[in-house]
Automatic annotation (TrEMBL):
Major place of residence: cytoplasm
SUPFAM superfamilies: Glyceraldehyde-3-phosphate dehydrogenase-like, C-terminal domain (SSF55347), NAD(P)-binding Rossmann-fold domains (SSF51735)
Role noted for this protein: Catalyzes the conversion of 4-hydroxy-tetrahydrodipicolinate (HTPA) to tetrahydrodipicolinate.
Entry protein name: 4-hydroxy-tetrahydrodipicolinate reductase
Location in the cell: Cytoplasm
Domain of life of the source: Bacteria
Length: 237
C-alpha cells in the first residue's frame, strides 16, 4: 500500500514505523511546514491517506483528499462539529472516509463494555456517574475524543441524560467528563458508578501509542476497495 501520512508528529511517526514493518510504502509526509504539498498529490500516486494532525487542520486535509478520491483514515480528534460536512462530501465525491476517536482494539472492546455496563446501571438511580480521561501535556483538545465516545455510550443508555459536560459539576441531565493533563501519559480512560455503599469502575490504560497506530494501519489496509463512511464497528464486525 502506498500511504500519505498527514501529520508527521507522535502518531505519524509511530504509524510510519508500523506501516513499513508491514511492507507498506510512505509516498509523502505532510506536516505543518509542507502542508501545501497535499494539493499536488493524486489518487494515482497514493492508495490511502492516514490523517493524524490537529483539530485546526484536519477538516481541510480530509476534504482535500476526498475531492481527489484518495481514501482517508482519520484519527484526529477535536474537529467533529464539522464531521457531517465531511460525510456529505464523501457521498458527493463517491469517496472513502474512515474515522475512529480511538483505533486501539482494546479501547474498542472497552467501548462495548461501557455500553453494556451503562445499560445495566441505568435503572439504578442510587449510582452517580463519573468519567475521567488523562493525557500527556501536549494534547490540544479537551475532552479527548475517546471520552466523548464513552459519554455518548452512557447517554444512549440513560433516558434522562442528554449531554456531556467537561470539567464542570454536572446537572442531573448531564454526564460529567473530568479531563486531566499530566506528564507523557498516552491515554487513560475511566468510567465509574458510585453509590453511598460501593462503586463499580472500569479503566482502559494505553501503555504506548502502538495500539492506536496499529489500528490505523489495519484500517487503511481494510478500506482498500471500499467506498463510503466507515468506522471501527464496521471493521470489527
Ligand atoms: N484516534 C486515535 O486513535 C488517536 C488520535 N490521536 C489524535 O491524533 C492527533 C495527532 O496526535 P499526535 O500525533 O499525538 O499530535 P502531534 O502534535 O505529535 O502531531 C501532529 C502533527 O501535525 C502537524 N501539523 C500541524 N498543522 C498541520 C497541517 N496543516 N497538516 C498536516 N500536519 C500538520 C503538527 O505540526 P506542529 O506541531 O508543528 O503544529 C504535528 O507535527 C490529535 O488530534 C490526537 O488527539 C492521537 C492518538 C490516537
Ligand atoms: O491525543 C492523544 O494522544 C490521544 N487522542 C485520542 C483521543 O482524543 O481520544 C486517542 C488517545 O486517547 C490518544
Amino acid at each position: 500500500m502506498r500511504i500519505v501520512l498527514i501529520g508527521y508528529g507522535k502518531m505519524g511517526k509511530e504509524i510510519e514505523r508500523l506501516a513499513l514493518g508491514r511492507g507498506h510504502t510512505i509516498v509523502a509526509r505532510i506536516d505543518v511546514d509542507n502542508a501545501h504539498e497535499l494539493a499536488n498529490l493524486t489518487s494515482q500516486e497514493a492508495d490511502v491517506a492516514i490523517e493524524f494532525s490537529n483539530p485546526a487542520s484536519a477538516f481541510t486535509n480530509i476534504l482535500t483528499c476526498i475531492k481527489k478520491q484518495i481514501p482517508v483514515v482519520c484519527g484526529t480528534t477535536g474537529w467533529l462539529e464539522k464531521k457531517s460536512e465531511i460525510e456529505q462530501a464523501t457521498a458527493a465525491h463517491d469517496a472513502t472516509f474512515f474515522y475512529a476517536s480511538n483505533y486501539s482494539i482494546g479501547v474498542n472492546l472497552f467501548f462495548q463494555l461501557n455500553r453494556t455496563l451503562a445499560k445495566l446501571m441505568a435503572p439504578h438511580q442510587a449510582y452517580d456517574i463519573y468519567t475521567n480521561e488523562i493525557h500527556h501535556l501536549e494534547k490540544k483538545d479537551s475532552p479527548s475524543g475517546t471520552a466523548i465516545t464513552l459519554a455518548e455510550g452512557i447517554i444512549d443508555a440513560y433516558a434522562e441524560r442528554t449531554k456531556w459536560v467537561n470539567n464542570e459539576i454536572p446537572q442531573p441531565n448531564e454526564v460529567p467528563i473530568w479531563s486531566q493533563r499530566e506528564s507523557t501519559i498516552p491515554g487513560t480512560h475511566t468510567v465509574k458508578y458510585i453509590s453511598k455503599v460501593d462503586q463499580i469502575e472500569i479503566t482502559h490504560e494505553a501503555f504506548s501509542r502502538e495500539g492506536f497506530a496499529l489500528g490505523a494501519v489495519i484500517a487503511a489496509e481494510w478500506i482498500q476497495g471500499k467506498k463510503g463512511i466507515l468506522g471501527m464497528e464496521d471493521m470489527l464486525k
